[in-house]
Amino acid sequence: MKYVDEFRDGLTARLIAEQIRQEASGQREYRLMEFCGGHTHAIFRFGIHDLMPENLKFIHGPGCPVCVLPAGRIESMIRLVEQENLILCTYADLMRVPAGRSTHKGDSLQKARARGADIRMIYSATDALNIAQANPERQVIFFAIGFETTTPPTAAILKIAKAMELKNFSVYCNHVKTPPAMAHILASGEARIDGILGPSHVSTIIGSEAYAECCHTYHTPLVIAGFEPLDVLASTLMLVRQINEGRAEVENQYTRAVSKHGNEKACALITETLEQRALFEWRGLGELPDSAMQIRPEYAGFDAEKRFSIDHITADDIKGCICPAVLRGVSKPDACKLFGTACTPEDPKGACMVSSEGACAAYYSFGRFR
Amino acid sequence: MSSSDFTSGVIEMGHGSGGRSSARLIEQLFLRHFDNELLQAGNDFARFEVPAGRMVISTDSHVITPLFFPGGDIGSLSVHGTINDVAMSGAKPLYLSAGFILEEGFLLADLERIVISMAKASRDAGVPVVTGDTKVVERGKGDGVFINTTGIGIVPEGIDIAGDRARAGDAVILSGHIGDHGVAILSSREGLTFNTTIASDSAPLHTLIAGMVALCPEIRCLRDPTRGGLATTLNELARQSGVGISIDESAIPIRTEVKGACELLGLDPLYIANEGKLVAIVPADAAENIVAVMRRHPLGGDAAIIGNVVTDAHQIVVMETAFGGQRVVDWLAGEQLPRIC
Amino acid sequence: MCLAVPALVVALTDDTATVDLDGIRKDVSTILLDEVQVGDYVLVHVGYALERINAAEAEKTLQLFAELRALDASE
C-alpha cells in the first residue's frame, strides 16, 4: 500500500531506534506523551516500546474520543432512544462502551440494541443523513463524537441537512478539542511530561500553528507525528533532540499531510455550523472550559439537545476503575486493581478497555505477558 | 400435483404444516435438486450401511446475512462448512442432513436459488444430502432462512487428529490466503459500501485433507479458521493442547485487497473469517512434504509453513511482525467492528 | 485517534471521489477539499477525504530514511 508500506520498514526502524538510543544515553529520563490513541495503538502493535532504551517512556494520553466521553452522555442517549423510539446512529466504536448509572447494570448501546432499541452502526456521517431520508416518519439522531479530525464531517452534514430542510434529523454533538486538553494536562504537571508526540490527523485539520501557545506556555516540545511506525520513531528522535538542546518548539514530522494552518476549508465549515461550549465534562479531566463544540443557533433546528429533553446524567466510574488516572498519564493500566481480572476486553468496566485506542485495551491485548 | 410458483411465490405458513403445500415444496424443490436414492426413498430417515471403524458427526447452523455474497451463498456455505468440520477430524465425509427454518414471506425464487446452490456444492463434493426437514416461522421471527447441516464421516484407522495433540516443535501450516470470506461479506453489507473483486473462499476441503493424511497419518491437528479468524483458531489449539504458538507475519498469505479493506476499516485480518482454509499442526520433519502435496491441490496452491509450536505455560500466540518486533495475538474480545479511531 | 488511510483518487463526480486502496474501491466525499484531481492521494476518514497527501513532502521524508539505510550499509 502506497504511503503505508514504505513507512513500516523494519530495517529503517532499527536504525532510527539505534540513533534514539545513542542520543538518549545518559542519566536523564525522557517522558514522552503520545497524545493520540491511534499512536498508542501503533506503539503496541508494532512493538515500538520494545525498541526504546530503558530511560525513554511513553505516557499514554487522552486522545481517544471514546475514552474521554463521560459515560453519562451515553446513558442519556440510551434513555432517550428507549423513551422516544427514535433511531440512533453511532460509529461502531461507541457500541460496547459501558454507560453510566443505570437500571440496567453495566449497560451499553449494544445491550440497549439487544433489548430492542433502534441503534444503528454507521461508518460515515453521511449514512446518518441517508437513514433520516429513508425513514421520514421517525426521528433520527446522529451521535457525533471525535476530536477535530471527525468534526468536519459532522459540520458538513449539518449544512446539508439544513439545505434539504430535513425535518426528522438532529445531531447530539460531543466533539472535543485537542489543544485545551493538552494544556490541561501540561498545566497540572502531574504526569511530568518532557515532550509530546502530537496527533497526526487532528493536525491535518487544525494545522501545526494550533499547538504553538501550549508549547510556549508550558515550555514543552511537541512534534507532530505521522501515523505509521517510522513516523512515530522519527518523531521520537526529534523530541529527544529538542529535549537535549533545551528547545520547546512545535515541529512537524508529518509534512506530507500537515501544514501550518491545516485544512482551512474544513475549519471554515466547522465555524459555520458549530461554536465553542463554555464548559464540557471530560472523563478523567473534569470540566474544561472552551474545550468542546456545540451547534450554532443558526442550526438549532438540528440540535438534539434543543429538540429533545435530554436528561443530564452524571455517572460515577465503577469502583476501582482508574481510567481517569490512565487518561491523564498518571497511572499505567496494569496498576488498576480491575485490570485483567474484573475488567477485560470481553467484559470491560471502563472505556479505556473497550476502545481499540484505549491504553488498557492495548496493554491487555498486546502486552499483558511482558 | 400443481406446481409451486418459484417465480413470484413466497413461503406461507402452510409450507411448514405437513400438508399438501409442504409436500409440494419438498417434492418440487428439495427432492428435485438434491436428488439421490436415499432421499428419494421418501422416509423421515436415511438408512445406510457403514463400514466398521470410528465415525464422526458434526453440526453447524447458518444464519449469515447477506444470504447471497460474492463467491457463494448461505446454501453452499452450509454444505462446505459441515463437510469441513467432519473432514477436520481426518474423516471421509459420507452424508449430510439439511434442516431449514423459513420465514413466512421469504421469496421462493431465493429459496430455489439457495437449494440449487447447495445441491451443486453437494454434488461437486461427492457428499449427498440424504435427509432433511422444513419448518416455517411467522413473519418477523426469522431472518429469511436459517439452515442447519449435520454431517457424518468415517475416520480411517491409525488417524488421531484432535485439538489437544499439538506438541512443542511441531510446525504450523496454513493452506492459503486469509480474510477473503470476511471481506467479501463486509463488502455486501449495507452501510459499508466498498467495491472489491474479492470473493468468499467457501470450499470443501475434504479431498485436500485426504491427500495430507495419506502422506502423513501423524498429523496432530486440523482446524478451519472460520469465525474469529486465524487468531482465534490458533488460540483455541494452543489452549486445548496446553502449548504456545509462534508465527511469522511475513509467512502468512494475504491478498493486497484484503489488506487494503482492513486498513480502510481498521480491522485486523488475523480475526477475519475464512471458509475454505485450514490450519494444520504437523510433525516438523513432515512439514515441507505436506506443504508440497497441498500445493498440488487446487485449494492448497498457496499453502505455507507459518510458524511452530513452543512450550509456554501461558498458552499464548505470539507473532514476529514484518516490522521486526513481536506482538501477542490475543483472543478476540466481542465482535470486531470497523472503527473511526 | 482518527484512523485515516491514504488512497488514490481514480474518479471524480461533483462532491464525490472514487478512491482505490490496493484494489478496494470506495466513494468518499470531497466536500472538505478544493481542487482534488484524479491521481491525487488523499487521506480518508469516515468516508471523507481530509487532505491531499503532498507527494513532494512524502518523498523528502522517505529520502531521510533512505539516507539512513545508505549510511548503515556503508559502515
- CATH H level of the largest domain in chain A: which superfamily? HypD, alpha/beta domain 2
**Strand arrangement across the biggest beta sheet of chain C:** 3-2-1-4-5
Radius of gyration of chain C: 15 Å
Briefly note the CATH topology name of the largest domain in chain A: Rossmann fold
* CATH architecture type of chain C: Roll
Q: Can you tell me the residue ranges of chain C where pLDDT is under 50 for at least 5 consecutive residues? A: none
| Average predicted local confidence, pLDDT of chain A | 92
Q: Reading side by side through the largest sheet of chain A, how are the strands ordered?
A: 2-1-7-8-9
Describe the oligomeric state of these chains in a short phrase.
heterotrimer
Write the layout of secondary structure elements.
The complex is a heterotrimer of chains A (370), B (341) and C (75).
Chain A: H1 10-23, E1 30-36, H2 37-45, H3 48-51, E2 56-63, H4 65-68, H5 71-84, E3 87-91, H6 109-114, E4 119-122, H7 125-134, E5 140-146, H8 151-164, E6 169-175, H9 178-188, E7 195-198, H10 200-206, H11 212-217, E8 222-224, H12 229-244, E9 250-252, H13 264-273, E10 274-276, E11 279-282, E12 286-289, E13 293-295, H14 304-307, H15 323-327, H16 351-354, H17 359-367
Parallel strand pairs in A: 1-2, 1-7, 3-4, 3-5, 5-6, 7-8, 8-9
Antiparallel strand pairs in A: 10-13, 11-12
Helix pairs in contact in A: 1-12, 2-17, 8-13
Chain B: H1 20-34, H2 37-40, E1 54-62, E2 68-69, E3 72-73, H3 74-87, E4 92-103, H4 108-125, E5 129-137, E6 145-155, E7 171-174, H5 180-188, E8 194-195, H6 206-215, E9 221-223, H7 229-241, E10 244-248, H8 256-265, E11 279-282, H9 287-295, E12 304-310, E13 317-320, E14 326-328
Parallel strand pairs in B: 4-5, 10-13
Antiparallel strand pairs in B: 1-6, 2-3, 4-6, 7-11, 7-12, 9-11, 10-12, 13-14
Chain C: E1 5-13, E2 16-21, E3 24-29, E4 41-45, E5 48-52, H1 55-74
Antiparallel strand pairs in C: 1-2, 1-4, 2-3, 4-5
